[in-house]
Amino acid sequence: MMQRTITPAPVRKSVRVSAPRERAFEVFTAGIGRWWPKTHHIGTADLDTHIIEPRQGGRWYERCVDGSECDVGKVLVWDPPARLVLGWQLNADFKYDPNLITEVEVQFIAESPSDTRVELEHRNLERMGDRADTLRQRIDAPDGWGGLLQLFAQSATQKQGTTS
Amino acid sequence: MANAHSSFAALSDPTRREIFQRLQSGGRSVGEIARDLPVSRPAVSQHLKVLKDAGLVADRADGARRVYHIDPKGLAAIRAWLDQFWDVALQSYAAEVARSEKER
């Protein structure tokens, strides 16, 4: 079958926060349990918190309310307060896969003493395509990727209701 | 070229989600898609153009007709999902920074 494969570009995001970059870095890492969307987690029990161990090679994992822990990835670069590179090791089934690493690079750029621009890049997404068959099934399933399309629908509705 | 805004915007429209969903079961021409949906052919073409610009579908010539399909590896959809996920996560992060700064 002749089909053109789309190689995904990295996901790039930028957000400005009203805090010095030391603080912005601290909230992103030590405080990840307070902002990580509770709806997105991999354990079977309810999510308790997210933890990034503050060192290169540190674990990035979530803990559920029943005490169980699930790996998300690891810290590839720990360079506070300027830069953080996390290895996102969840595959297309949203399961931890030690053989898969996609990189999430986060840069904290001081725009003023009290304002920081946070730039995030999630790259190497094509590595998620190594198991194409599984992926197709996941995407086709009604609950694939946490109900991918439903999520878009919900977010679109929410966006209309807020001013950003 | 897919970009951050367009994949989200492309799938925030219910008709385009419907079209995208149908293409997941295999490639289809504009005529085939229009036959299944209460939407005119020109409208379907327009929706496909948006999906194509967002990097969510691709097309190829099949004789005289053009067949649209989604990336067989599903990567475009995953990218779109992550794109939307990081939007939500970073909004939540920025709100948490603001909240914690206020407490200090």
Can you give a write-up of this model?
The complex is a heterodimer of chains A (164) and B (104). With 164 residues, chain A is an alpha+beta fold. Chain A folds into 2 domains: 11-128, START domain (Alpha-D-Glucose-1,6-Bisphosphate, Chain A, domain 4), CATH 3.30.530.20; 131-164, no CATH class. Chain A has helices spanning 21-29, 32-35, 132-140, 148-161; strands at residues 11-17, 47-52, 59-64, 69-79, 83-88, 102-112, 115-123. The radius of gyration of chain A is 17 Å and the shape is globular. Mean pLDDT of chain A is 78; it is low at 142-149 and 151-164. By secondary structure, chain B is α+β, with helices and mostly antiparallel strands. In chain B, 64% of the residues lie in helices and 13% in strands. Chain B contains 5 helices and 3 strands. The radius of gyration of chain B is 17 Å and the shape is elongated.
Q: Briefly, what is this?
A:
The complex is a heterodimer of chains A (164) and B (104). Chain A is 22% helix and 34% strand.
State the helix count of chain B: 5
Distance between the termini of chain B: 43 Å
Query: If you consult CATH, what is the topology of the largest domain in chain A?
Result: Alpha-D-Glucose-1,6-Bisphosphate, Chain A, domain 4
Outline type of chain B: elongated
Give unreliable regions of chain A as ranges: 142-149, 151-164
User: Which architecture of the largest domain in chain A does the CATH hierarchy give at level 2?
Assistant: 2-Layer Sandwich
* Secondary-structure arrangement, i.e. CATH architecture of chain B: Orthogonal Bundle
Extended strand count of chain B: 3
**Approximate helicity band of chain B:** 55-70%
CATH class of the largest domain in chain A, anyone?
Alpha Beta
| Sheet with the most strands: spatial strand order of chain A | 1-7-6-5-4-3-2
Across the major sheet of chain B, the strand order is: 1-3-2
